[in-house]
Amino acid sequence: MAVEGGMKCVKFLVFIFNFIFWVCGVALVAIGIYAQLALDKALAVSSASAAGSPVAILVLGIVIFFISFFGCCGAWKESYCMVTTFAVLLSIIFLVEVAAAIAGYVFKDKARSVLEEGLWDAMHKYGEDQPVTEAVDEIQRDFQCCGANNYTDWSRIERFRANDTVPRSCCRSNATSCNVHPTPETVYEKGCLQKIEAWMKKNILIVAAVALGIAFFEILGIIFACCLMKGIRSGYEVM
């Protein structure tokens, strides 16, 4: 009876941890959507790989959501096959997350260069490509920035250098000629690269905290799933 009670406890813990995974999956989906909406225009002027980052978080959240649901059913029904499948899938997800974290750390400097390259490319297309023009304007207004590194970057674009102007989205006010002969008093002085980086560093702590929490519960989930698998296979005779 004590052994059976112990296995019921393990079963309950596996079910609870899977419910927590389900909540974590929902949290990742929310973070992915938030990042996509918040950086929508910035990602539009960047590379396809950078634009896929929020989507990757969103997909990971959905995968965890369904795996946790699968694990809950396996624990509730005491299905050896379902619990085993859950443990294997969860282990794979954990390894993928570790690999992604390592890759993110190794290529963190590359992300900055990709974003800067995307901003410069968008600046050269400004006024010629309507979607890109709108994206640049929205970035500069939302982040209160001008150019890639600072407002003088626009002087390297021929059409703006000729008239000594910058886009009106750089203006601090709605004055008619605020973008003519720009100065730090009339336009945003800091570049968008610096402002976007600051925003990402501020919010990456949230992502890191969620990722660490998920990783911790994944390890516990795998351990308890293995214990439940052992109990189911032995018919409650072996812990």
Automatic annotation (TrEMBL):
Entry-linked SUPFAM superfamilies: Tetraspanin (SSF48652)
Intrachain disulfide bonds: 146-171
Topology versus the membrane: Multi-pass membrane protein
Cell location: Cell membrane; Cell surface; Endosome, Multivesicular body; Late endosome membrane
Gene Ontology terms describing biological process: cell differentiation; protein transport; regulation of vascular endothelial growth factor signaling pathway
Keywords per UniProt: Cell membrane, Disulfide bond, Endosome, Glycoprotein, Lipoprotein, Lysosome, Membrane, Palmitate, Protein transport, Secreted, Transmembrane, Transmembrane helix, Transport
Family: Belongs to the tetraspanin (TM4SF) family.
Stated role: Functions as a cell surface receptor for TIMP1 and plays a role in the activation of cellular signaling cascades. Plays a role in the activation of ITGB1 and integrin signaling, leading to the activation of AKT, FAK/PTK2 and MAP kinases. Promotes cell survival, reorganization of the actin cytoskeleton, cell adhesion, spreading and migration, via its role in the activation of AKT and FAK/PTK2. Plays a role in VEGFA signaling via its role in regulating the internalization of KDR/VEGFR2.
One GO CC annotation: late endosome membrane
Quaternary structure (record): Interacts with TIMP1 and ITGB1 and recruits TIMP1 to ITGB1. Interacts with CD9. Identified in a complex with CD9 and ITGB3. Interacts with PMEL. Interacts with KDR/VEGFR2; identified in a complex with ITGB1 and KDR/VEGFR2 and is required to recruit KDR to ITGB1 complexes. Interacts with SYT7.
Originating gene: Cd63
The organism of origin for this protein: Caloenas nicobarica (Nicobar pigeon)
InterPro entries found in the cross-reference section: Tetraspanin/Peripherin, Tetraspanin_animals, Tetraspanin_CS, Tetraspanin_EC2_sf
Signal peptide interval: none
Chief location category: membrane
PROSITE patterns: TM4_1
Record protein name field: Tetraspanin
Gene3D superfamilies, sorted: Tetraspanin
Origin superkingdom: Eukaryota
